[in-house]
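Sat 14:20. Reprocessing the chain from the morning session after the first attempt stalled halfway. Input below, unchanged.
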Amino acid sequence: MSKRVTQLCLAAVFTALLAVGSWISVPFAVPFTLQTLVLYLALWLLSAPYALCAVAAYLTLGAMGLPIFAGFQGGVSVLFGPLGGFLWGFLLMVVLCLIVRPRKTSARLICLTTGTLLCYAAGTVWYAAFVAWTAEGIVTALLTAVVPFILPDALKLLTAWQLGKRLERHMPTP
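Finished this time. Tokens:
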């Protein structure tokens, strides 16, 4: 099987895993899910164009109404609702990796960390627009939608790094 076909098949698998990762969640104002772990793994194991395919397919299927977002939700209203900025932030993360194309482990970790910060920024601005577009609204958005996720996302990133190192030995070179 060619590398392209393998990467495309893996992109489809990661699309499904993003959905499953969103279903494994702890309810909160912004739900804790395993989506970011799956996204980190996708960006670690797939070439960025195929990771982009996986995320774009996931967002498209969710926008079409399939209940694949956190809380078994789906539809355009989720993408354009208060938490939609975080979903759009996934695309920003992938685009950053597409532009940078990190190869070394340290560069990948920096890219994924920076991508996470971009995702936080997009989600915070978006969420603040729904809460209140004031300094207090931005602080509320940060305290609600970012601060509680810093440690869990750091742990997910470290987990993806360790899993990715072990799994990439079995992956075709992108």
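The chain has one domain: 3-170.
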